[in-house]
Amino acid sequence: MFGRIKIHFSKDKKIYQSLHNIFGFYPGRLSYYKIALTHNSSHYHLSSKDIKINNERLEFLGDSVIGTIVTEKIYNRFPSANEGFLTEMRSKIVGRNKLNQIGRKIGLLTVLKYDIKLNNNRSISDTLCGNTLEALIGAIYLDKGYNFTKKIITKIILNNHIDFDQLLLEELSYKAKLIKWAQREHKKIDYQVYAIDTENKQNIFTIEILIDGEKVIAGRNHSKKIAEELASQKYCTQIGI
């Protein structure tokens, strides 16, 4: 009770309450979460030192923690599955698109400190959501430990946002799907960088897909891999596969 009263009068009451609303608990070491909620476009300034930091290190940590816990979950859920199947299922859960979707659904952009100009590009703002989710998992791990983090990932990611039956039917990669189609139809498919632009101090890649040497569609993102996937998804939809 004393802890809740202290939070009520804290200057950080809003962030305490926001994190409680999202994850169902109050942070212990709030500094971890402040860092996790700071994108590199809006650095968090440490009060005791002249140092500006962002959430990239926590994102790296959280990515590993999520991967470990999800791996354990699918290993136990599918006891007779081979390594290839388990790897694909894990990728469907911890892949960038899925984490982006979950991060947006639980409202992480409303608590993240970042340059709002990044909202002008939907694919970038989606990526912010997934990266922030990973960073927050890293913060929870440092603050509360492995077992507590496992409960949060199970509740927030696996129980609330993952349908394992649906995952079995999903394509892992639109690029892989398109390449299979090209092989089946005896067509030559290529991906090439058409342009590299700079927006908000980040490189944005435009990737074109060529079918039998003819440019058919393009995708844009700060990641080449995601740009390829976005272009592939659009063309798969266009040709109905």
Brief sketch in words of this structure:
With 241 residues, the chain is of the alpha+beta class. It contains eleven helices and five strands; from the N terminus they run H-H-H-E-E-H-H-H-H-H-H-H-E-E-E-H.
**Spatial ordering of strands, largest sheet:** 3-4-5
Number of domains: 2
- N to C succession of SSEs: HHHEEHHHHHHHEEEH
Q: Which class do the helix and strand fractions yield?
A: alpha+beta
Taken from the alpha-carbon principal axes, the silhouette is: flat
Helix proportion: 55-70%
CATH topology of the largest domain: Ribonuclease iii, N-terminal Endonuclease Domain, Chain A
Beta percentage is: 5-15%
CATH class of the largest domain: Mainly Alpha
- Mean of pLDDT: 87
* Corresponding CATH superfamily of the largest domain: Ribonuclease III domain
Q: What does the main sheet amount to?
A: 3 strands, antiparallel
Which ranges are low-confidence, i.e. pLDDT below 50, for 5 or more consecutive residues? none
Account of the 3D structure:
The chain is flat, with a radius of gyration of 20 Å. It is built from eleven helices and five strands; from the N terminus they run αααββαααααααβββα. Helix 4 crosses helix 8. By secondary structure, it is α+β, with helices and mostly antiparallel strands. The model has no long low-confidence stretch (mean pLDDT 87). The protein has two domains: 166 residues, Ribonuclease iii, N-terminal Endonuclease Domain, Chain A (Orthogonal Bundle), CATH 1.10.1520; 66 residues, 2-Layer Sandwich (Double Stranded RNA Binding Domain), CATH 3.30.160.
